[in-house]
Design brief:
single chain, about 260 residues, mainly alpha, about 75% helix, globular
């Protein structure tokens, strides 16, 4: 058990730092890392990815709270945008947590890689365009929130890989987009985690110390580590220029995509 806690502490330190730096919730680091760890610890294969996604989302609750708090000390939150996106997130995240029960572990891994491939492609093709102020109708924000929430619940991520580029496109500078993204990670992860707990409640083959699909030792260790590292990453993000933050974000995604493809081959 000591080895388990140590492994997850290190995962939490790294994912928390990146979550604070990029406003991505840490899931795109947590999901591949938890998948490797759960395989090593011989978790049940049939529910392997379900446990990974649920545990990742539960950890993002704490990560998002910490990184959002730090970001909002340095920039103001666009409350109308946050509230409109959250309306869609509520339906999307709750739906995803129950839909995942009907998908296999391998299907979920493929889905995760395809998503990263699409986002990375769009970042390199379109993210270099200068952000311009655009008028976005409320229903568009609602739809954006639904897609972000659904995708996040199905992939175990906080939504930043989609919300940051979208918010930047609407005219938000990177620091403001990251602050909003970090904050919407709170309802995404909370609603998604509750759905995963309910969805996995009656499954008897899950590892000991599981709450639904959520593996509690990993949640406790990672949450403890991210409490410190996410704030450090958030502070650093406000010291980098808008262009430098975009540059690092793109190549960070490319590294994660390469690693994720390798894991499913």
């Amino acid at each position: 058990m000591l080895l388990i806690f140590t492994v997850f502490l290190f995962i939490g330190l790294f994912s928390g730092f990146l979550a604070g730096l990029f406003g991505v919730g840490g899931g795109i680091i947590l999901v591949p890392s938890l998948l490797i760890s759960f395989k090593y610890f011989n978790f049940p294969q049939d529910y392997l990815m379900h446990s990974v996604l649920a545990t990742s989302l539960s950890c993002i609750i704490i990560t998002s709270l910490n990184s959002s708090y730090t970001h909002l000390q340095k920039t103001s939150l666009d409350k109308p945008v946050f509230l409109n996106i959250t309306l869609g997130i509520t339906l999307g995240a709750s739906s995803g947590g129950f839909v995942v029960k009907f998908l296999t572990s391998h299907q979920l891994q493929i889905f995760f890689v395809l998503f990263l491939l699409l986002v990375t492609y769009k970042m390199f093709k379109g993210f270099n365009l200068p952000a311009e102020q655009r008028h976005i109708p409320k229903p568009i924000y609602w739809f954006m929130g639904f897609i972000i929430g659904l995708k996040s619940a199905l992939l175990g991520v906080g939504g930043g890989t989609l919300s940051v580029p979208l918010l930047n496109w609407t005219g938000k500078k990177m620091q403001d987009a990251v602050a909003i993204s970090s904050t919407i990670g709170i309802p995404i992860s909370l609603i998604g985690t509750i759905a995963y707990i309910i969805s996995g409640w009656n499954i008897s083959d899950l590892p000991d110390y599981s709450l639904g699909y959520v593996y509690l030792p990993a949640f406790a260790s990672i949450s403890l580590a991210t409490t410190f590292s996410s704030r450090f990453g958030a502070n650093l993000s406000h010291r980098l220029s808008h262009e430098k933050l975009k540059f690092v974000f793109k190549y960070f995604l490319l590294i994660i995509l390469t690693k994720s493809i390798y894991n499913i081959i």
